[in-house]
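Render this sequence as a predicted structure.
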Amino acid sequence: MLFRKYKSEISIEELLANPTAPLLIDVRGSTDFDPSIPGSKRVYLLDIEERTREFEQRFATQMATRPLLLYCAKGEGSGYLVDLFSRKARVHNLAGGMASYLATISRLLHEHPYRDSAKREETMTQLLMALTNRQTDPATFATIIDRLLRSSPNPEFRKLVAGGFNSS
């Protein structure tokens, strides 16, 4: 990501470096069948906008130890919400939103050197389903991401394994 559009924004790469660090909040007004980042909770954008303080209180315990990462379809609606939170809350916007997440995951899946080339498509489909299902176990999510990053031909992705999510 060359520049950041919003004050407190993290890139997809920063998320993938430590995918279970932030508390993920999906603010899209879509259905439960839409792809989501594993472990995310769905809270509609307008519900947060109208009751930001109530939201901070509801998630105060989790936010004390983990930064909050909001995402929407393209990062615009969630970026707007970041400024509504109090200064004490560590709230970030996911740059590019779900569209950027899906593009990055797709790239990693296509670059991955699969052991059994005959089952490549089937394996890719299973992994994609796990990486876009909010019910996927966080440990499973982190393991899949770790393996995809480690095996990527892109040195920038491989570097992320040693990096991590910067929650400051």
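Summary. The chain is about 45% helix and 10% strand. The beta strands are 9-10, 23-26, 41-42, 68-71, 91-94.
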